[in-house]
Design goal:
The structure holds 2 protein chains of 2 kinds. Chain A folds into 2 domains: about 180 residues, no CATH class; about 180 residues, no CATH class. Chain A is built from 13 helices and 12 strands. In chain A, the strands form 2 sheets. Chain A has a 6-stranded mixed beta barrel. In chain A, strands 2-10 form a two-stranded antiparallel sheet. In chain A, a hairpin with a 2-residue loop joins strand 3 and strand 4. In chain A, helix 2 packs antiparallel against helix 9. The longest helix of chain A is centred in the last third of the chain and has 40 residues. Chain B is an alpha/beta fold. Chain B has 7 helices and 10 strands. In chain B, the strands form 2 sheets. Chain B has a 6-stranded mixed beta sheet with strand order 6-7-8-3-9-10, with helices on both faces. In chain B, strands 2-1-4-5 form a 4-stranded antiparallel beta sheet, covered by helices on one side. In chain B, a hairpin with a 6-residue loop joins strand 1 and strand 2. Chain B is globular, with a radius of gyration of 18 Å. Chain B starts with a strand and ends in a 5-residue tail after the last strand. The chains are: A alpha+beta, B alpha/beta. At the A-B interface, helix 1, helix 10, helix 11 and helix 13 of A face helix 2 and helix 3 of B.
Chain lengths: ~400, ~230
């Protein structure tokens, strides 16, 4: 019997038993689609977090007043002054950038448009410590910093909300009573690890913000960027000693400031995402297993009917290998079809969910192959093995099978 | 009418082993000539169906010799026995054994598929066979849309479509009412008379056996008597 006759027989048998074929395919589709979707999205989430960690800036320490007690400084710990940042820069080794910052939310007006955004006052080290790059224009100069000039560098979101497509460099915008010249536009960084839009920001010289917007000499956070290879522990110790001294704390008093290591935050986050991915993977593995059991059930339930069918075919004069080839072809066609539909469904689901959850869509050939291979193997094994057992019986035993 | 087609010598069949062993056949000798119509009768458990299955190469004897048209069947492999069934034997079962959800025509074409006939030849032969059992206009109906008598006629069409030397029928009327049963028997008689097909039929009904030319009686795994029909009982 020619190969294509077998294919014809197998396809006929699939068409004839549409419900059984459909259920078998469904089991495989669900198994493959679930695993591939979950693992792909999990990988996307991990990738997104690691991107955000990179955008946060490497080797960054954040010095804040008060102890770590939730948001906002607690127990009236005094804020820092610009001089604290200068002292750190002068006295602590292996640092790349030290940026004293103060932030306020304010409404910015350009022509008829207005937009509430976060205004940060700092120095040019701010851009180094935050891994910022320029898209247009320039950063403000040391002279402008010292003089407290009304110049600002704006984030991509602010630019999008307040300016049309033309370059905003040289334009002025109004913040409260302050009229401020745009000198640069920052390249977009996207969401932060906490889900905040990092590009919704305006950066001005510290002195300008202190004089014209907050009206105080306070600095709320000092961003400290270490050189590559610097020991976080050593820098943290030096910082602690220096700040205790500057804040005149006696030996039995606790620190009224805290130092946070962004790497630490990043590690915590990526650990959490890793756990999530593992969990999703486990859920996916269970769905693959459930899909597999579904396939097994369908195949085993139809064993009686199929055994008699095999008996009929053998009695009529089919060779064992012809019957087996037909059943194998049937199982392979169903499993491969189910697997491909599953992969297609997973691709669509991943694409949709990735854009919905703003995650990158990372196509992983490995997991696609693995899921496809596993489901197809279950389909083929459970389609073929019972058939093989039946085809090895004497025809009369297969015919009598109840 | 004198060519020997089938010869059984000292055939035994034992099911199970040791204490639980059951001897279904205890030394059967039987000769069947080309063109005969033989009814095999006997009470249940007498071994008539076992003998039939061995004759049809659906089952293998425990010992003894089976010569089919000069071939020693006990020396054949599984595949060779399958080829023997494919080329020389046709089967009709009590329970019809048609493929479910399959049209009459496709059922009849099935043995031709395994013989590697082309689609046109399959179609032509299958329609011819269905015509000869009077079901040409039912060709595209599935088994479940046919009555019992019609299903058995499809089964007969499937058995004769390959033009076999021997047609083996195991209680072909067992699931049918008496009117349909007699219609099926008329059909088998005409197959035997007009096409010269040798027919071996198992039955326990004397009026069905009466259609045959020769009746073989089994009792306790052995042939009790073997008579030409028409002889004084």
């Amino acid at each position: 019997m020619m190969g294509w006759t077998t294919l014809l027989l197998a396809l006929r048998e699939i068409r004839r038993n549409l419900m059984r074929s459909f259920l078998t395919v469904l089991g495989i589709v669900i198994g493959v689609a679930a695993v591939v979707t979950m693992v792909t999205l999990g990988n996307g989430a991990t990738q997104a977090v690691s991107d955000q960690i990179t955008s946060l800036g490497s080797n960054l320490l954040m010095l804040r007043p008060g102890q770590r007690m939730g948001p906002g400084s607690s127990s009236g710990a005094p804020n820092f002054k610009a001089e604290d940042a200068e002292a750190i820069k002068a006295q602590v080794g292996s640092l790349k950038a030290v940026a004293p910052t103060i932030s306020r939310t304010a409404v910015v007006v350009v022509g008829t448009k207005n937009w509430a955004t976060s205004i940060t006052g700092s120095n040019s080290d701010y851009f180094t410590s935050g891994n910022w790059t320029l898209e247009d224009g320039r950063y403000f100069s040391a002279t402008e910093e010292r003089a407290g000039k009304a110049v600002c560098v704006i984030g991509a979101t602010v630019r999008k909300e307040l300016f049309e497509s033309h370059s905003p460099v040289g334009d002025t915008m109004r913040i409260k009573q302050l009229s401020c010249e745009v000198v640069g536009v920052l390249a977009a960084k996207g969401q932060s690890a906490m889900g905040r839009d990092q590009d919704d920001t305006i950066v001005m010289p510290l002195r300008t913000v202190q004089r014209r917007i907050t009206g105080k000499q306070d600095v709320s956070t000092i961003l400290i960027s270490m050189q590559d290879g610097a020991s976080t522990e050593q820098v943290t110790n030096q910082l602690t000693v220096l700040m205790r001294e500057r804040r005149k704390l006696s030996d039995n008093e606790e620190d009224n400031f805290s130092i946070r290591d962004t790497k630490e935050i990043a590690q915590t986050l990526s650990g959490a995402i890793g756990t999530m991915t593992a969990l999703l993977g486990a859920v996916a593995a269970v769905s693959l297993l459930v899909g597999g059991i579904g396939i097994m059930n369908i195949m085993l339930v139809s064993v009686t009917e199929r055994t008699r069918e095999i008996g009929i075919r053998l009695a009529i004069g089919a060779l064992e290998k012809e019957v087996l080839l037909q059943f194998l072809t049937e199982a392979v066609v169903l499993s491969a079809f189910g697997g491909l539909v599953g992969l297609l469904l997973a691709a669509i689901a991943c694409y949709g969910l990735a854009s919905l959850l703003s995650l990158p869509f990372l196509f992983s050939p490995g997991i696609n192959l693995l899921a496809f291979g596993f489901s197809a193997a279950i389909g083929v094994i459970f389609g073929y093995v019972p058939a093989r057992r039946a085809a090895q019986l004497d025809p009369i035993e297969a015919l009598r099978h109840e | 009418m004198s060519d020997v087609l089938i010869q059984l010598a000292g055939i035994t069949k034992t099911y199970g082993q040791g204490q639980a062993a059951f001897q279904a056949l205890r030394g059967v000798d039987l000769t069947i000539r080309q063109g005969e119509f033989v009814a095999i009768m006997g009470p249940s458990g007498s071994g008539k169906s076992t003998a039939m299955n061995i004759l049809g190469c659906l089952d293998t004897p425990t010992s003894g010799a089976y010569v089919f048209d000069g071939l020693h069947v006990e020396d054949l492999s599984r595949d060779q026995r399958a080829l023997l069934r494919r080329n020389y034997l046709g089967f009709v079962f009590q329970g019809f054994n048609l493929l479910a959800r399959t049209t009459a025509q496709e059922n009849v074409e099935l043995p031709l598929l395994y013989r590697g006939e082309t689609a046109e030849a399959r179609h032509e032969l299958a329609m011819g066979a269905l015509r000869s059992v009077g079901l040409a206009e039912w060709a595209h109906h599935t088994s479940s849309e046919l009555s019992g008598g019609q299903q058995q006629r499809v089964a007969i069409a499937r058995a004769i479509v390959t033009n076999p030397k021997v047609l083996l029928a195991d209680e072909p009327t067992g699931n049918l009412d008496s009117k349909r049963g007699h219609e099926i028997m008329e059909l088998l008689v005409s197959m035997n008379r007009d096409h010269g097909i040798t027919i071996l039929m198992v039955t326990h009904e004397p009026d069905i056996a009466a259609y045959a030319k020769r009746v073989v009686h089994f009792v306790d795994g052995q042939i009790a008597h073997d008579k030409e029909n028409g002889e004084a009982a």
